[in-house]
Write a structure and sequence with these properties.
The protein is α/β, with parallel strands linked by helices. Helices cover 37% and strands 11% of the residues. It is globular, with a radius of gyration of 24 Å.
Length: 308
């Protein structure tokens, strides 16, 4: 399959609410201050009265205090988990979701009627998306680290691994992580019949709905391999989109799909639930590797579902 760069598409960008709030509160504080000056200049009964602090100024101080506190907490969490710099905070997602198209060269016959297959979300924002596959390693430190650092990520689960500890992934879901479909047994799907592929995909839909209360709309085929029957089966099971990946993270290095071996706005990063038995490191080591790369390049990690 020939790999080419996906075109970038414009996304509607939202103005930052915090900056707007500061401007409004500042203007209100100035106006209140002017009114107070007028009162002191000659209003009856104003002589000797103690000047009142404007409510808007109090609100501005409170906002600044909370902002400083949040930044300090992020810096402390980064230091606690061995990061040189705290992760950059993602901007607000676009009000209008970008239109997702199948990447050039990734189409099958009749693609326009099937879920799109893509490696990058069209956006101009400097964000990337972290996705974690299968469910083999169930490291409690990963849950703590991602919550402390407030790093969003998306999981794609296979039942033959997840069923060893459904509770681990329930805790993950309770922390705001979306749980999606990676088949029941992680087979090479193009080698199966349509009905067998449908069993693998729809069966995992049933498991996730039973265990976690919601049928996923995202599906990732094992190994990134699929054919027309895969996408037909996925659509019949309620799948809306098939995110693949633009780069892959390990505990000690990154691997790249694109020719320039770099990140781009909207890129999807793949990694796996793995530990020292498979890697030269732990899940937290992998997160450090990803975040050092992402942050050094000026990117923030955003929540994939917010852009789809």
């Amino acid at each position: 399959m020939r790999l080419v760069r996906q075109k970038e598409y414009s996304a509607v960008r939202r103005k930052g609410r915090p900056a707007a709030a500061v401007a409004v509160l500042t203007a209100a504080a100035i106006a209140s201050g002017c009114a107070s000056e007028g009162d002191r200049s000659g209003a009856p009964g104003a002589r000797g009265r103690q000047a009142l602090r404007a409510p808007a100024a109090d609100a501005l101080d409170l906002y600044a205090h909370r902002l400083h506190g949040a930044q300090a907490a992020r810096a402390a969490a980064a230091k606690r988990w061995g990061l040189a710099d705290p992760p950059l905070q993602a901007p607000e997602p676009p009000r209008t979701k970008p239109r997702i198209r199948t990447r050039d060269g990734f189409e099958v016959a009749g693609q326009s009627r099937l879920p799109p297959v893509f490696t990058t979300v069209p956006t101009r924002q400097k964000v990337v998306f972290l996705t974690i596959d299968d469910g083999d390693e169930k490291d409690p430190a990963l849950l703590r680290m991602m919550s402390d650092l407030k790093i969003p990520y998306t999981a794609f689960l296979s039942d033959y691994l997840v069923k060893k500890d459904y509770g681990y992934f329930k805790e993950m879901q309770d922390r705001g992580v979306a749980l999606n479909n990676h088949t029941l047994h992680h087979p090479y799907l193009p080698g199966l019949s349509y009905e067998d592929q449908r069993h693998e995909i729809c069966g995992m839909q049933d498991v996730i709905e039973k265990r976690y209360g919601k049928r996923p709309e995202l599906f990732r085929p094992p190994y990134g391999n699929y054919n027309r029957d895969t996408l037909r089966a996925a659509r019949s099971c309620g799948i809306k989109a098939v995110p693949l990946w633009a780069s892959e993270a390990f505990a000690d290095h990154m691997e790249w799909r694109e020719w320039d071996k770099d990140l781009h706005p909207g890129d999807i990063i793949l990694t796996h639930f793995r530990g020292r038995e498979d890697w030269k490191g732990t899940m937290p080591d992998m997160v450090r590797q990803v975040m050092e790369t992402v942050t050094d390049k000026g990117y923030a990690v955003a929540r994939l579902e917010d852009y789809l």
